[in-house]
Protein backbone atom coordinates (compact mmCIF):
# COMPACT_ATOMS: atom_id res chain seq x y z
CA UNK A 1 0.00 0.00 0.00
CA UNK A 2 1.02 3.61 -0.56
CA UNK A 3 1.70 5.36 2.71
CA UNK A 4 3.64 8.37 3.92
CA UNK A 5 6.58 7.22 6.05
CA UNK A 6 8.33 9.99 7.99
CA UNK A 7 7.07 12.52 5.47
CA UNK A 8 8.11 10.63 2.33
CA UNK A 9 5.89 8.61 -0.02
CA UNK A 10 6.55 4.86 0.24
CA UNK A 11 4.99 1.81 -1.33
CA UNK A 12 5.18 -1.02 1.21
CA UNK A 13 3.79 -4.54 1.28
CA UNK A 14 2.72 -4.61 4.91
CA UNK A 15 0.04 -5.37 5.80
CA UNK A 16 0.75 -4.55 9.47
CA UNK A 17 2.85 -1.79 11.00
CA UNK A 18 5.16 -4.46 12.40
CA UNK A 19 5.63 -5.87 8.90
CA UNK A 20 6.31 -2.39 7.52
CA UNK A 21 9.00 -1.76 10.13
CA UNK A 22 10.69 -5.05 9.25
CA UNK A 23 10.46 -4.14 5.57
CA UNK A 24 12.41 -0.90 6.12
CA UNK A 25 15.01 -2.60 8.31
CA UNK A 26 13.71 -1.43 11.67
CA UNK A 27 12.09 -4.65 12.82
CA UNK A 28 14.35 -4.97 15.85
CA UNK A 29 15.22 -1.28 16.32
CA UNK A 30 14.32 0.76 19.38
CA UNK A 31 11.77 3.09 17.83
CA UNK A 32 8.39 4.61 18.71
CA UNK A 33 5.53 4.99 16.26
CA UNK A 34 2.60 7.27 15.59
CA UNK A 35 -0.10 6.50 13.03
CA UNK A 36 -2.00 9.42 11.54
CA UNK A 37 -0.87 11.67 14.37
CA UNK A 38 -1.82 9.34 17.22
CA UNK A 39 0.61 7.31 19.34
CA UNK A 40 0.74 3.66 18.33
CA UNK A 41 2.22 1.54 21.16
CA UNK A 42 4.75 -1.11 20.19
CA UNK A 43 2.43 -3.84 21.46
CA UNK A 44 -0.27 -2.75 19.00
CA UNK A 45 1.94 -2.80 15.89
CA UNK A 46 1.46 -6.48 14.95
CA UNK A 47 -2.32 -6.11 15.01
CA UNK A 48 -2.51 -2.73 13.29
CA UNK A 49 -3.08 -2.94 9.54
CA UNK A 50 -1.94 -0.13 7.26
CA UNK A 51 -4.08 1.22 4.46
CA UNK A 52 -3.50 3.52 1.51
CA UNK A 53 -2.97 7.12 2.56
CA UNK A 54 -1.85 6.37 6.12
CA UNK A 55 0.87 8.54 7.64
CA UNK A 56 3.33 6.60 9.76
CA UNK A 57 5.93 8.35 11.90
CA UNK A 58 8.87 6.31 13.19
CA UNK A 59 11.07 8.09 15.72
CA UNK A 60 14.16 7.20 17.70
CA UNK A 61 16.18 8.71 20.56
CA UNK A 62 18.05 11.81 19.47
CA UNK A 63 20.08 14.67 20.89
CA UNK A 64 18.03 17.26 22.76
CA UNK A 65 18.23 20.19 25.14
CA UNK B 1 20.32 17.63 45.99
CA UNK B 2 17.11 18.26 44.04
CA UNK B 3 14.21 15.85 44.35
CA UNK B 4 11.87 15.56 41.38
CA UNK B 5 8.71 13.51 41.82
CA UNK B 6 10.29 11.60 44.68
CA UNK B 7 13.56 10.87 42.88
CA UNK B 8 16.70 12.50 44.25
CA UNK B 9 19.18 13.33 41.51
CA UNK B 10 22.93 13.46 42.07
CA UNK B 11 23.52 17.04 40.92
CA UNK B 12 21.59 20.28 40.36
CA UNK B 13 23.13 20.51 36.87
CA UNK B 14 20.81 19.19 34.18
CA UNK B 15 22.60 19.02 30.85
CA UNK B 16 21.40 18.76 27.27
CA UNK B 17 22.86 16.32 24.78
CA UNK B 18 22.63 18.39 21.56
CA UNK B 19 25.11 20.36 19.46
CA UNK B 20 28.40 18.89 20.75
CA UNK B 21 31.31 18.62 18.30
CA UNK B 22 31.24 14.81 18.68
CA UNK B 23 29.60 12.05 20.76
CA UNK B 24 32.93 11.50 22.56
CA UNK B 25 33.15 15.15 23.61
CA UNK B 26 29.53 15.02 24.76
CA UNK B 27 30.26 12.02 26.98
CA UNK B 28 33.40 13.69 28.34
CA UNK B 29 31.46 16.91 29.08
CA UNK B 30 28.88 14.90 31.04
CA UNK B 31 31.63 13.33 33.11
CA UNK B 32 33.29 16.72 33.72
CA UNK B 33 29.96 18.25 34.74
CA UNK B 34 28.90 15.28 36.86
CA UNK B 35 25.46 16.16 35.51
CA UNK B 36 22.44 14.81 37.38
CA UNK B 37 20.09 14.46 34.40
CA UNK B 38 20.51 14.23 30.62
CA UNK B 39 17.86 15.75 28.35
CA UNK B 40 17.11 14.05 25.05
CA UNK B 41 14.59 14.25 22.22
CA UNK B 42 12.80 12.13 19.66
CA UNK B 43 13.31 12.57 15.96
CA UNK B 44 12.58 10.58 12.81
CA UNK B 45 14.83 7.54 12.70
CA UNK B 46 17.49 8.17 10.08
CA UNK B 47 19.98 5.57 11.24
CA UNK B 48 21.70 7.35 14.14
CA UNK B 49 19.11 6.78 16.82
CA UNK B 50 20.23 3.34 17.93
CA UNK B 51 23.87 4.36 18.53
CA UNK B 52 22.75 7.50 20.33
CA UNK B 53 20.50 5.46 22.61
CA UNK B 54 23.45 3.27 23.61
CA UNK B 55 25.59 6.35 24.28
CA UNK B 56 22.91 7.84 26.53
CA UNK B 57 22.52 4.61 28.48
CA UNK B 58 26.27 4.55 29.07
CA UNK B 59 26.07 7.93 30.81
CA UNK B 60 24.34 6.09 33.64
CA UNK B 61 22.14 9.02 34.75
CA UNK B 62 18.38 9.64 34.57
CA UNK B 63 17.08 10.74 31.18
CA UNK B 64 14.55 13.53 30.67
CA UNK B 65 13.00 13.39 27.18
CA UNK B 66 11.61 16.62 25.77
CA UNK B 67 8.86 17.65 23.39
CA UNK B 68 11.05 20.27 21.69
CA UNK B 69 9.62 21.76 18.54
CA UNK B 70 5.99 20.95 19.37
CA UNK B 71 3.55 23.79 18.73
CA UNK B 72 0.26 22.17 19.74
CA UNK B 73 -1.23 20.18 22.60
CA UNK B 74 -1.79 17.19 20.33
CA UNK B 75 1.79 17.11 19.03
CA UNK B 76 3.21 17.45 22.53
CA UNK B 77 0.99 14.74 24.01
CA UNK B 78 1.75 12.28 21.19
CA UNK B 79 5.47 13.01 21.47
CA UNK B 80 5.34 12.47 25.23
CA UNK B 81 3.59 9.14 24.76
CA UNK B 82 6.25 7.98 22.30
CA UNK B 83 9.02 9.19 24.63
CA UNK B 84 7.57 7.31 27.60
CA UNK B 85 7.63 4.05 25.67
CA UNK B 86 11.07 4.59 24.15
CA UNK B 87 12.91 5.82 27.25
CA UNK B 88 10.82 3.86 29.77
CA UNK B 89 10.27 6.89 32.01
CA UNK B 90 7.20 8.85 33.09
CA UNK B 91 9.31 12.04 33.08
CA UNK B 92 8.70 14.50 30.27
CA UNK B 93 10.15 17.96 29.70
CA UNK B 94 7.07 19.58 28.25
CA UNK B 95 7.71 22.25 25.64
CA UNK B 96 4.88 23.79 23.65
CA UNK B 97 6.26 26.66 21.60
CA UNK B 98 4.28 29.70 20.49
CA UNK B 99 6.86 31.88 18.78
CA UNK B 100 9.78 30.63 16.70
CA UNK B 101 11.96 33.74 17.08
CA UNK B 102 11.99 33.68 20.87
CA UNK B 103 10.92 30.04 21.42
CA UNK B 104 8.50 31.55 23.90
CA UNK B 105 6.24 28.89 25.40
CA UNK B 106 2.54 28.86 24.51
CA UNK B 107 1.54 28.91 28.15
CA UNK B 108 -2.17 28.32 27.46
CA UNK B 109 -1.48 25.15 25.46
CA UNK B 110 1.22 24.21 27.97
CA UNK B 111 -1.25 24.14 30.86
CA UNK B 112 -3.71 22.06 28.83
CA UNK B 113 -1.03 19.57 27.75
CA UNK B 114 0.32 19.38 31.31
CA UNK B 115 -3.17 18.53 32.60
CA UNK B 116 -3.74 15.79 30.00
CA UNK B 117 -0.31 14.25 30.59
CA UNK B 118 -0.55 14.42 34.40
CA UNK B 119 -3.92 12.68 34.25
CA UNK B 120 -2.29 10.00 32.12
CA UNK B 121 0.39 9.31 34.73
CA UNK B 122 3.21 11.45 33.35
CA UNK B 123 5.52 13.41 35.64
CA UNK B 124 5.69 16.71 33.84
CA UNK B 125 8.62 19.17 33.85
CA UNK B 126 7.08 22.20 32.12
CA UNK B 127 9.30 24.67 30.25
CA UNK B 128 7.43 27.84 31.16
CA UNK B 129 7.72 31.56 31.74
CA UNK B 130 8.27 33.00 35.21
CA UNK B 131 4.67 34.29 35.34
CA UNK B 132 3.15 33.56 38.76
CA UNK B 133 -0.34 32.85 37.47
CA UNK B 134 0.84 30.50 34.72
CA UNK B 135 3.04 28.65 37.21
CA UNK B 136 0.09 28.39 39.60
CA UNK B 137 -2.04 26.92 36.82
CA UNK B 138 0.68 24.40 36.00
CA UNK B 139 0.72 23.25 39.62
CA UNK B 140 -3.10 23.01 39.54
CA UNK B 141 -2.73 20.87 36.40
CA UNK B 142 -0.62 18.36 38.33
CA UNK B 143 2.97 19.54 37.83
CA UNK B 144 5.25 19.12 40.84
CA UNK B 145 8.20 20.99 39.35
CA UNK B 146 8.43 24.23 37.37
CA UNK B 147 11.08 25.17 34.82
CA UNK B 148 10.89 28.90 34.00
CA UNK B 149 13.18 30.22 31.30
CA UNK B 150 16.11 32.44 32.20
CA UNK B 151 16.15 33.84 28.66
CA UNK B 152 15.23 32.47 25.21
CA UNK B 153 16.72 29.05 24.42
CA UNK B 154 20.24 29.31 23.01
CA UNK B 155 20.47 33.08 23.58
CA UNK B 156 23.07 32.92 26.36
CA UNK B 157 21.65 36.13 27.85
CA UNK B 158 21.46 34.85 31.40
CA UNK B 159 18.58 35.74 33.71
CA UNK B 160 16.47 38.35 31.92
CA UNK B 161 14.14 38.85 34.86
CA UNK B 162 15.85 38.17 38.20
CA UNK B 163 13.02 39.95 39.99
CA UNK B 164 10.43 37.62 38.46
CA UNK B 165 12.48 34.52 39.24
CA UNK B 166 13.04 35.67 42.85
CA UNK B 167 9.34 36.41 43.20
CA UNK B 168 8.49 32.93 41.89
CA UNK B 169 10.90 31.35 44.38
CA UNK B 170 9.28 33.27 47.25
CA UNK B 171 5.77 32.44 46.02
CA UNK B 172 6.35 28.68 45.78
CA UNK B 173 8.92 27.92 48.49
CA UNK B 174 8.26 24.17 48.47
CA UNK B 175 8.09 23.49 44.72
CA UNK B 176 11.28 22.33 42.98
CA UNK B 177 12.25 25.15 40.61
CA UNK B 178 14.68 24.88 37.69
CA UNK B 179 15.99 27.71 35.53
CA UNK B 180 15.75 26.22 32.06
CA UNK B 181 17.34 27.93 29.06
CA UNK B 182 19.16 31.16 28.38
CA UNK B 183 22.28 30.42 30.43
CA UNK B 184 25.47 31.58 28.72
CA UNK B 185 28.05 31.83 31.48
CA UNK B 186 28.82 30.11 34.76
CA UNK B 187 27.95 33.38 36.55
CA UNK B 188 24.39 33.10 35.17
CA UNK B 189 24.06 29.58 36.57
CA UNK B 190 25.51 30.69 39.89
CA UNK B 191 23.00 33.55 40.02
CA UNK B 192 20.09 31.14 39.55
CA UNK B 193 21.33 29.00 42.43
CA UNK B 194 21.95 32.09 44.61
CA UNK B 195 18.25 32.93 44.10
CA UNK B 196 17.44 29.60 45.74
CA UNK B 197 16.63 27.60 42.63
CA UNK B 198 16.94 23.84 42.94
CA UNK B 199 18.66 23.20 39.62
CA UNK B 200 19.75 24.67 36.30
CA UNK B 201 19.12 23.12 32.89
CA UNK B 202 21.47 24.18 30.10
CA UNK B 203 22.85 22.87 26.82
CA UNK B 204 24.11 25.41 24.29
CA UNK B 205 26.44 27.23 26.73
CA UNK B 206 28.44 24.03 27.17
CA UNK B 207 28.02 22.33 23.81
CA UNK B 208 28.90 25.39 21.70
CA UNK B 209 31.76 26.64 23.89
CA UNK B 210 35.21 26.39 22.34
CA UNK B 211 36.08 23.79 24.97
CA UNK B 212 32.84 22.08 26.01
CA UNK B 213 34.51 19.86 28.60
CA UNK B 214 36.13 22.80 30.41
CA UNK B 215 32.87 24.77 30.28
CA UNK B 216 30.95 21.80 31.66
CA UNK B 217 33.28 21.73 34.66
CA UNK B 218 33.03 25.53 35.05
CA UNK B 219 29.23 25.29 35.11
CA UNK B 220 29.32 22.55 37.72
CA UNK B 221 31.63 24.59 39.96
CA UNK B 222 29.50 27.73 39.56
CA UNK B 223 26.33 25.84 40.41
CA UNK B 224 27.95 24.37 43.49
CA UNK B 225 29.20 27.84 44.51
CA UNK B 226 25.77 29.41 44.01
CA UNK B 227 24.08 26.64 45.97
CA UNK B 228 26.53 27.00 48.87
CA UNK B 229 26.08 30.77 48.83
CA UNK B 230 22.30 30.51 49.00
CA UNK B 231 22.56 28.18 51.98
CA UNK B 232 24.99 30.56 53.65
CA UNK B 233 22.39 33.37 53.87
CA UNK B 234 24.11 36.19 51.92
CA UNK B 235 24.22 39.76 53.21
CA UNK B 236 21.78 42.36 51.90
CA UNK B 237 23.14 44.82 49.35
CA UNK B 238 23.19 48.47 50.52
CA UNK B 239 23.81 51.81 48.88
CA UNK B 240 26.36 53.32 51.26
CA UNK B 241 29.72 51.98 52.36
CA UNK B 242 30.11 50.25 55.71
CA UNK B 243 33.76 49.96 56.80
CA UNK B 244 34.83 46.41 57.37
CA UNK B 245 37.99 47.35 59.29
CA UNK B 246 37.18 48.57 62.83
CA UNK B 247 37.56 52.33 63.38
CA UNK B 248 38.09 51.87 67.16
CA UNK B 249 41.77 51.98 68.07
CA UNK B 250 42.91 53.78 64.96
CA UNK B 251 46.00 55.89 65.65
CA UNK B 252 45.54 59.67 65.43
CA UNK B 253 48.06 60.72 62.82
CA UNK B 254 46.52 63.75 61.16
Automatic annotation (TrEMBL), chain A:
Signal peptide range in chain numbering: none
Pfam family for this entry, one: ThiS
InterPro entries: Beta-grasp_dom_sf, Mopterin_synth/thiamin_S_b, Thi_S, ThiS/MoaD-like
SUPFAM superfamilies found in the cross-reference section: MoaD/ThiS
Domain of life: Bacteria
This protein's name: Sulfur carrier protein ThiS
Species for this entry: Paracoccus simplex
Name of the gene this protein is made from: thiS
